[in-house]
């Protein structure tokens, strides 16, 4: 093995080991004693169920990650990447079409392998714990729609990136960066109107106490709101959520029907206020700019390695190509990506604290924010005592008990 193969293999194994340790520590951190704060929303049976849910999902995740790593390593050292490359080259098409065929075959294989795991997760685990509302027909149509979107949106972008690095030389990374930024902004702009409705039904929130309370709050904090929508999230899961879609003048609030059914008007206004907090604190543009900067650095590094012979030799390739280089660099870049992910999670948790505080201050009702966090934890069977190392690696939101303490501390 050359140095590239050693680096990538070590990166894969170290990443797997770190996540394994994190998961095992998280399981050991499960506390049989229900925290006092949650005794009004959890009984002993529900708390036991929430811990079992954490165990089952963690073990399933370990099985999935172990299987995925094993398949990758077997395919790699059996010369699978070169076999696929030689197969698509025999068709005699140009670089772009050949690259799309190469990536398409690998994606299709990975997708087919993942289907049994998705089925088990949805129809066994989620069903067992009372979350699953997805019917087999919805499961199938969701995947057909997802594949269609991948072909419609992903294939042209991939073709463009391959063409740019194939024909535009040393400055290709800059053109690729511009294309990805423009592409991302366009997708975010059209998503609320054209993409999300493919999977969920967005219904304008009917007139009534909730809508009026939301509009009153939006006016109070000078938040321009174009629409308030209810999503049929209950078609797939009993879990609840809320989020913003769009940007600029197309900002919309989206509330899951399960969220509306299970919470009071003050609690729902608190959820809205939290989301508005992200907007007012400029978290969304900060995240976008940070993401774009990371993409630019990654593309520059990609331009240095994409056609390095040693990187292709590490995967037993007979020929050097831009499209294979894209894939192999992704594996080489994975240690940097993991470090950046941890840093981004830290900023995300900080933003969540700030949005919570904004909600508590602007509504003047911190206990409604506390109440909704506690109810969501119970409804979603959240882990109330995650291990700090697991949080450090994986949590984009702080543990709920930390959020509650921070809200009350700010209000006192």
Automatic annotation (TrEMBL):
Compartment(s) where it occurs, according to its Swiss-Prot or TrEMBL record: Endoplasmic reticulum membrane
Lipid bilayer topology: Multi-pass membrane protein
Domain of life: Bacteria
Residues that bind Zn(2+): 274, 278, 352
GO molecular function, one term: metal ion binding
Any single Pfam family the record assigns to this protein: Peptidase_M48
GO biological process: CAAX-box protein processing
Main location: endoplasmic reticulum
Identification of the protein by name: M48 family metallopeptidase
Species in which this protein is naturally found: Natronogracilivirga saccharolytica
């Amino acid at each position: 093995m050359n140095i590239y193969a050693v680096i990538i293999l070590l990166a894969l194994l170290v990443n797997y080991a770190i996540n394994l340790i994190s998961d095992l520590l998280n399981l050991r951190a499960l506390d049989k004693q229900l925290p006092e704060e949650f005794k009004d929303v959890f009984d002993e049976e529900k708390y036991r169920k929430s811990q079992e849910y954490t165990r089952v999902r963690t073990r399933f995740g370990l099985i999935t990650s172990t299987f995925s790593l094993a398949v990758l390593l077997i395919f790699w050292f059996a010369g699978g990447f070169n076999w696929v490359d030689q197969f698509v080259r025999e068709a005699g098409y140009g670089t772009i079409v050949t690259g799309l065929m190469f990536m398409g075959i690998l994606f299709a294989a990975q997708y087919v392998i993942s289907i049994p795991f998705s089925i088990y997760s949805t129809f066994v685990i989620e069903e067992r714990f009372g979350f699953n509302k997805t019917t087999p027909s919805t499961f199938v149509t969701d995947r057909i729609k997802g594949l269609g979107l991948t072909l419609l949106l992903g294939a042209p972008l991939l073709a463009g990136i391959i063409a740019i690095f194939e024909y535009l030389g040393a400055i290709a990374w800059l053109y690729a960066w511009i294309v990805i930024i423009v592409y991302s902004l366009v997708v975010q702009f059209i998503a609320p109107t054209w993409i999300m409705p493919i999977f969920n039904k967005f219904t304008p929130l009917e007139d009534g106490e909730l809508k009026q309370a939301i509009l009153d709050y939006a006016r109070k904090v000078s938040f321009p709101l174009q629409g308030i929508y209810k999503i049929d999230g209950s078609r797939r899961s009993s879990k609840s959520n809320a989020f913003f879609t769009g940007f600029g003048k197309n900002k919309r609030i989206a509330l899951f029907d399960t969220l509306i059914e299970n919470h009071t008007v003050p609690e729902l206004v608190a959820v809205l206020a939290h989301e508005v907090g992200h907007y007012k604190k400029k978290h969304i543009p900060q995240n976008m700019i940070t993401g774009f900067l990371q993409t630019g650095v990654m593309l520059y590094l990609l331009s240095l390695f994409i056609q390095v012979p040693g990187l292709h030799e590490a995967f037993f390739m007979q020929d050097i190509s831009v499209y294979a280089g894209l894939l192999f660099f992704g594996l080489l870049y994975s240690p940097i990506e993991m470090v950046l992910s941890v840093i981004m999670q830290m900023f995300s948790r900080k933003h969540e604290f700030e949005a919570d505080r904004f909600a508590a201050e602007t509504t003047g009702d911190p206990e409604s924010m506390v109440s909704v966090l506690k109810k969501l934890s119970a409804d979603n069977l959240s882990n109330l005592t995650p291990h700090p190392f697991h949080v450090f690696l994986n949590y984009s939101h702080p543990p709920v008990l930390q959020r509650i303490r921070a809200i009350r501390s700010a209000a006192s």
